[in-house]
Amino acid sequence: MNRIHFIEGDTDSALQAICGNLNEDFTQQFNAVIRDRDFYNDNVKYFFPTIRGDVCNEKKILGLAIERQGPSMIALAPKNYIIFKNYCVNSKIKLKGVNQKTKKITKDQIVDYINEGKITKCTNIGLAQKNHQMSQFSIQKNGITGIHIK
Q1: Is 7 a domain residue?
Q2: Domain annotation covers residue 132
Q3: How many domains does the chain have?
Q4: Distance from C-alpha of 97 to C-alpha of 142, rounded to nearest angstrom
Q5: What's the pLDDT score for residue 53?
Q6: Residue 104 domain-assigned?
Q7: pLDDT tens for residues 57-100?
Q8: What sign does the CA torsion over 119, 97, 126, 130 have?
Q9: Is the pTM of this model over 0.85?
Q10: Residue 123: HSE in the Cβ half-sphere, 13 Å Cα cutoff
Q11: Integer Cα distance of 56 and 66 in angstroms
């Protein structure tokens, strides 16, 4: 296979771009890059989930499961990416450590980071208990950045 491009990965995940048939949409998966169809049909059950759909079947060791797919993707760092869907409508934006319910990140902000290096700050609000006293806290994080530190 010479038409698969590794985009980004983490401990338990890998995001890849597959250069398939240009006449089909992005839901074609591996159909255009399989060279030996008989070998694929004999071994696919060991790596991909089957139609049963139970959790044990989906979480196979060294197995593959498609969680998200789209026509294109921009990855800035592990767990920091955007997958375009429906030609930029309803795109999936994943940003490590950012509560996107309180801070809406847009595609334009990601493009600004790529073109100008403009880092978007986000504030996460949470609750913590210390000495039987509940308090609210807020943490400011870099929402869009090319690196992560723990």
Answers
A1: yes
A2: no
A3: 1
A4: 9
A5: 56
A6: no
A7: 666 677 777 777 788 888 887 778 888 876 656 778 877 777 77
A8: negative
A9: no
A10: 4
A11: 15
